[in-house]
Here is the input.
Amino acid sequence: MKNFDIEDPITKLNQVSTKRGEALIANKIFTLKDLLYYFPRKHLDRSNITKIKDIQAGNKYNIVGRVETCGERKTRYKKLYQVIVSDGTGLLTLTWFNSSTHIKKLVKKDDQIAIHGKVDWYNGFSINHPEFDILDHQSNPMNTGSIIPIYPLSIDFKKVGIEQRLIRKLMIQIIDGVTDFDDIFSDNFLVSNALINIKDALSQLHFPSSSDNLSSAIYRLKFDEHFIQQMFLGLIKSKIKYTKSTIFKDIGPYFQKIRDDLSFELTNAQKKVIAEIHSDLKKSSPMNRLLQGDVGSGKTIVAILSSALAAGNNYQVAVMAPTEILASQHFNAFKKELSKARVTCCLLVGKMNKKDRDKIITNIKNGKITVVIGTHALIQKDVEFEKLRLVIIDEQHRFGVDQRNKLTNKGKNPHLLCMTATPIPRTLSITYMGDMDLSIIDELPKNRIPVTTKIIDSNRLGKVYSFMNNQIDDGLQCMIVYPLVEESEKSDLAAAVEMYNHLKKNTFSAHSVGLIHGKMNPEEKKTIMNRFKQNEIQIIISTTVIEVGIDVPNATVMLIEHAERFGLTQLHQLRGRVGRGKEKSYCILVNRGSSERSLSRLEIMEKMNDGFKIADEDLLLRGPGDYIGFQQSGFVKYKIANVLTDGPIIRKARAIAFKMIHKDPHLESHIGIKNLIFKKFRKNLDLINLN
Ligand code: ADP
Ligand code: MG
Here is the structure.
């Protein structure tokens, strides 16, 4: 038997030819370790395989059988590829639409196949677009009686003979031949946290000896992924904790004045959040807080009162929003309140004439302006502050970390308050934003009338249009949103324009109709939005979620076309544009999808009004990958961890990581962990304090 180093190249293994080596490398598998961390997609075990005679339509199953026949079929509308599978107890039809050439290459007569999917009944049991794996004799637990890992296999792998069996043979060589499995955790640590060691975990994952052992292996490997992420976040937090910032000693004269003059009573949630922020501002390390609150929960006034605290201590504030419309809306809200206390504020956006801009820039620099509200324009080089000590970022997920840093770097370790109206499920926020402290406004202002949501088929649109006409006759306003799909942006825009012309000429000819879309420049958008706000335009048609956060209390109908194309959180955001005034509001979802699934998804919108619950549902349905902003956020991709279902593991990993940092802030006695952090987060080492 060969003796390997875990960092040896994969070409050292038997049966890895040049071609196979290339295919592996193309999949970023360079070393033996990389291959060991090529994890199975799932495990097949006799106990989780169901016989076809025992299945029922409507449920999901794992089924293993032999391909009896396969072939293409044409119906009137579609070309489809069908495979009939038998497991000796019954027959099951697998159907693929429009992907025949691809599937044809993968599935052949007499193949042993493992299938996973939801069973339907159309003249027999069938599954559309199942997940499947082709098995060889040794990967069929029905033959071997053991738990078998199923690896993801790309076509490129199959071309060079990298099949399930070969991968297993390679894994055996590695596990038998490698002696130096370095565990980042000590034996003591493993014992006291009920974790198995890394060698056992990896060998059990690839060759489980029982389902309990497999569970322990999966648990350990998930723990590792969450732990290292939490460690990194903990280190960021620790660096912030040891950074000196400015203490806001006083409450100052402005906070109380503005608060007492409000035309409404703050909700308890707002009061609680303001207290949390205030307590941060009194500390010597910078605040790093994320304020979450559903649309309309009243985050703006929290931001205004926080600014008043800064102003009361003679410091400057920068408030950054992702769009000009939002920035100028904020500016109006801030100005209204701040002027009561004679705190100076200004708006800084991209398109300004040079003279105005120069004057503003000068006054920011000399400290005459206390609160500056703006867009990305704030992070331009020549914008300098005299004493910026509080940075507020609205809709923070629309900004990258770099932009955020550019703004905070204009001050001396300023306090940072980020705000978001996208309710983020708890496990996600501690995974991706766990370096921040969290404040949640979980209560809407009183007297809000809940928005009624209704799903309709397109053939009911006529009725809806006349309802909208009636609303407008009553002095109210409406919005219509069309989705914009990236790939076909142009044609969708064309569709919206066409619709706009049509509705303007026919359906809503008695009223003024406006169009707003992403291709317009900010000036044009602003003009249209202002006219909508002034009720000079009664119906606005928009191609997409252009402006989050616009506040037009007189709008009572939100009609969303092709609602099935939106994520639930997006729909919830859009719905939040209405129901802001005294009148009863409606959100109409036009469902043009044909699937059962898209309908049941939309039904969640009819049932739920709570953004957090909707976010949870959305996450379950779509997975975190699609979740707003996280895809681009540059975080490590998990191999085995699942932020949806690993809540308890995440919390445990977090607690342990944070305790470790507390005891040993520079990880001096945890070299293995430290090195892993260096490797995994090499691009973000400036955020932490390790050397
Ligand atoms: P969001 O959290 O979506 O940013 P806003 O801050 O824009 O919400 O608030 C929405 C509306 O509710 C604004 O018109 C604001 O003046 C109003 N508002 C905020 N807090 C309260 C409150 N406690 N009672 C009544 N109205 C409030
Ligand atoms: Mg807002």
About this structure: The chain has four domains: 42-150, 187-242+656-691, 252-441, 452-608. The longest strand covers residues 60-74.
